[in-house]
Structures are given as C-alpha cells and as structure tokens.
C-alpha cells in the first residue's frame, strides 16, 4: 500500500516521496555559459563567464532586447543569474522568459553559515 503524506508547505513526505524509490532520475542541468547581472535603477552590470566580458548597459526594455538577448547565441545552454531587487528585476526576467532563456533570481538576504 502506498501512502502519501503532505506537510504544511506542500511537499510530499514519507517513504514514497523519495525520488530514487519512484525511479525518477534527477540530474542537474549543466550550463556552458553563465551570465551574472547586477540590477540598478538606471543600469545593468553584466559579467559573462564564456568570454569574461564585463559591461554596463542602460536598463531599458530596448537595451535588453538589442544588447543582452543578442549576446546569447545558445539559449538552451545559458543560465542568467540576477539579484532580487524589490521588483526592479521583473522587466529583465520577463524578457528572458519570453526568449526561452533559463534565469535564476537570487535572494540577496544575509546568509548564515553553520560552523
């Protein structure tokens, strides 16, 4: 008999929730290129792992389409990482999603390191 239990945050718990028991193969996708973008109100600072190019561009929808999206030749093998900045990232994230580019919005909150 298979039993599924739900905890308050919606995740499955119990024996049947184990991915290896269900036969799911969970593999992390490896990206050939990672682009980091720091978002300010008027500009974007871009760091590119592929060509080590660092640029600062104006933060407008036109600039995102003409400069950033043109830099990304292989959308399926590129990951863009940006910082959550209280809503300023929405314009960039929406444009990347529309272009089918994987994007991660990182939380800039303080990190606690256990020693």
Structural description of this entry:
This protein is α/β, with parallel strands linked by helices and 115 residues long. The protein has a domain at 28-106: Nucleotidyltransferase, domain 5, CATH 3.30.420. Helices cover 21% and strands 29% of the residues. The chain is built from three helices and seven strands; from the N terminus they run ββαβββαβαβ. It has helices at 19-22, 61-71, 90-98; strands spanning 5-6, 12-13, 33-39, 43-48, 54-58, 78-83, 102-106. The strands form two sheets. The chain has a five-stranded mixed sheet, covered by helices on one side. A two-stranded antiparallel ribbon has the order 1-2. α2 packs across α3 (90-98).
Q: Estimate the strand proportion.
A: 25-35%
Taken in chain order, the helices and strands follow as: EEHEEEHEHE
- Ranges where pLDDT stays below 50 over 5 or more residues in a row are none
Q: Predict the CATH topology of the domain at 28-106.
A: Nucleotidyltransferase, domain 5
The CATH class name of the domain at 28-106 reads Alpha Beta
Oligomer: single chain
Biggest sheet strand order reads 5-4-3-6-7
Helical segment tally? 3
As a percent range, the share of helical residues equals 10-25%
Sheet with the most strands, sense and barrel status: 5 strands, mixed
Mean pLDDT: 78
Q: Total strand count, please?
A: 7
The CATH architecture of the domain at 28-106? 2-Layer Sandwich
Net shape = globular
What distance separates the N and C termini? 42 Å
Radius of gyration: 19 Å
């Amino acid at each position: 008999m298979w039993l599924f239990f739900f905890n308050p945050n919606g995740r499955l718990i119990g024996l049947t929730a184990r991915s290896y028991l269900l036969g799911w193969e969970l593999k992390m996708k490896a990206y050939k290129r990672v682009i980091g973008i720091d978002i300010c109100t008027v500009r974007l600072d871009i760091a590119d792992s592929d060509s080590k190019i660092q640029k600062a561009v104006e933060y407008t929808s036109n600039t995102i389409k003409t400069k950033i999206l043109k830099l990304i030749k292989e959308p399926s093998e590129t990951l863009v990482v940006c910082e959550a900045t209280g809503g300023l990232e929405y314009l960039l994230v929406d444009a990347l999603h529309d272009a089918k580019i994987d994007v991660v919005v990182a939380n800039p909150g303080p990190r606690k390191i256990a020693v």
